[in-house]
Amino acid sequence: MISNVVAPAVTGIILALVSLFGLVSSQTAAPDKNPASSEIIVYGDK
Amino acid sequence: MQLRARRALPVDLWALVLTLAFTWPLWQSGGYPLARDLVFTPAIPLRPETLGLGTAAPRAVPLDAVVAILGFAVDGAVLARVAIAGALVLAGMGMHRLIPRADWIARATVAGFAIWNPYVAERLALGQWALLLAYAALPWLVLGMTRGGAAAIVAPLALASLTPTGGLLALATVIAMALPAAHEGRARLRAVGLAILAQLPWIVPSLLSSAATTSDAAGLSAFAARSEFGGSAYLSLWGFGGIWDAQSVPASRSGWLGVLSALVGLVGVLWFAKRGARMSLVAVRQCPALVVLALGSWLVAGLGSVSFLQPLLVRLIDTVPGFGLLRDGQKWLAPLVLVGVLGWGLFIDSVLAYVRPRAAAWVPLLAALAIMGPLVLLPDATVVVHRTLAPVRYPAEVAAISAAVRDSDGAVAVGPWRLYRRLGWAGPAGVYDPASRLLDARVVTDDRLLVGGTSIAGEDPYAAAVGQALAAPSPHRPADLSRLGVRWVLVHRDGNDAELLRNELVAEGGRVVVGGRWLELIEVSSHPAAAPAPSSAEVAAIAGLDLAVALLLVGTWLAGRFPRRRSADIPDR
Questions:
Q1: Could you read off the pLDDT of B217-234 as tens digits, one per residue?
Q2: How far apart are CA B529 and CA B478, in angstroms?
Q3: Maximum alpha-carbon separation in chain A
Q4: What gap in Å lies between CA B27 and CA B33, rounded to an integer?
Q5: pLDDT of B482-505, one tens digit each?
Q6: Taking CB atoms and an 8 Å cutoff, what residues of chain B touch A37?
Q7: Inter-CA distances, B535 with B48, B436, B539, Å
Q8: Which residues of B touch A43 (CB under 8 A)?
Q9: What angle separates helix B63-70 from helix B76-97, to the nearest 10 degrees?
Q10: CB–CB of A44 and B246 under 8 A?
Q11: Which of B246, B248, B422 sits opposite A41 (nearest CB)?
Q12: What are phi and psi of B515, to 5 degrees?
């Protein structure tokens, strides 16, 4: 029972969670440069 | 005692050498200087806006009109080199002529220091060449006032009065020189009258302009004089530095050289007060007035940096028209630089007079130290100046865009909506959008300024309305822009938001008329409403006024050069 049902289920859940976490993080991590914004050009600096 | 040409020439040549070193990028390659506030184009179109009759505050009036008229005869690339280098040479030549009795070593020190100092370096790094023309005119104004008549100050007065700031500096200098000697005749009072009349070309348009008469007080702290080496900003101002913009300051100003330059400035002003009347052409009565003017300019220059005065100044700038001129205080420092530089030369002269009879062998070393002193005090001046002066060439598509908008109805809005840009085809520095000086059309740009993290509101209500319409992507945007009189949108392809704006405008029905690598011209409306424009009567009145002032100046100069002979002077036949 444990080896046939519980172990594969727990392994499957863990794998699913890890994969899901990896997938979500890869898609939501902040990029190096925000593609929506451009550099703010100033007249000068104090 | 005037300085004879033979005695003046070697020192004038030294001024020329230093100017060449200071402006070296201009002579290395062709093209137009385009960085920060320094914007030269092949020719500025002569339009009502150049006379100060736009909806923006007339800041470059009558400068733009004069450059536009000169542009009919001289290309902007030539004009840029003559104006920038000419200002520096004139400053050096004028300053040493004020101390003709001094040793040539002292005069060479003065000529060099007039060119190679923090005030000139920082203002040139920011690209404010017209202010430097006014600075260069000051010694010639003083020289003219020592000769008495209004005719003697015409040329420097005209040069300084090309901008409101320069005009006010000239007016203050003329008054300081005239009032102590007012009893000596009407000539000096006539000079004051002439100096006031010379300001009309910018005063009258500023009264007619629909731009806000008051300025955003947020600019007070943004443009306040800046401490460069610790302590109060007033200390940095003694060393002729203290500009608000950190990018324009040579790195050496933050070290002991900055402190040393403040000491030099202090000694210079004190020595001018002590020896100026005896050793310079400035008369005994005029000397204290000039020192008071210098100290006044120093006080005004630092006002914005005094924390307990800021609430009062903010209220004044917010409510009283014209007080916005106080925001960038350090530009008013020119009279202190004039007096400090002259005084430092007189100090060197005194040291030489002391050393020469006692230890003549030391004089060559002293001469070398004195003459090279300005370069030692500011060894990295060219680091900030050369990157601003490096000339660039305009992209090929500019010609096609100019041809497309010339003689067409409707204004050109320039996007993405910002005033300062980092142009891929120009240098790495931010630059004032050159479109208004390139295109013969009503050009509308953002007039807000970003200084560090502070946004300073603009003064042009038309620009604000166009900016609001251009910023909102919607199917109604072309109609909104058309109602405001905008036919064209010029897109600078200088960032991701430029591509976004371009694609949005095309999706909203805009037609790409000229497409280039760096610039695109998009027609958003073929039948726009009329953009705000001055009436023909207003244009005629201001053009007439400018012409009258120009004729007055020329007439005064001619009257001084060819005085009318009295009947008693005419020999009997």
A1: 788 889 999 999 988 999
A2: 12
A3: 73
A4: 11
A5: 999 999 999 999 888 899 999 999
A6: 496-497
A7: 10, 20, 6
A8: 245, 419-420, 430, 449-451
A9: 120
A10: yes
A11: B422
A12: -120, 125
**Which of A33, A34, A41 is the mutation pick for testing B, counting most B CBs within 10 A?**
A41
HEC assignment per residue over B256-307: HHHHHHHHHHHHHHHHHHHHHHHHCCCCCCHHHHHHHHHHHHHHHHHHHHCH
Cβ B452–A44 below 8 Å, yes or no?
yes
Contacts of residue B497 in chain A, CB cutoff 8 Å?
A: 37-38
Please list every residue in chain A whose beta carbon sits closer than 8 Å to the beta carbon of residue B245.
Answer: 43-46
pTM for the model stands at 0.91
What residues contact residue B266 under an 8 Å CB cut-off, 6+ apart? B238
Distances (CA, A) of B144 to A36, B156, B157, B191, B561: 59, 8, 10, 10, 13
Of residues A37, A39, A46, nearest to B222 (C-beta)? A46
Looking at residue B214, its pLDDT comes to 74
ipTM beyond 0.90? no
Residue B241: name the closest of B120, B138, B341, B160 by CA: B120
Instruction: For the beta carbon of residue B268, count every other beta carbon within 10 angstroms.
Output: 28
Tokens of A12: 């499957």
In 3D, which of B270, B241, B281 has the Cα closest to residue B339?
B270
- Closest-CA distance, B541 to chain A, in angstroms, reads 35
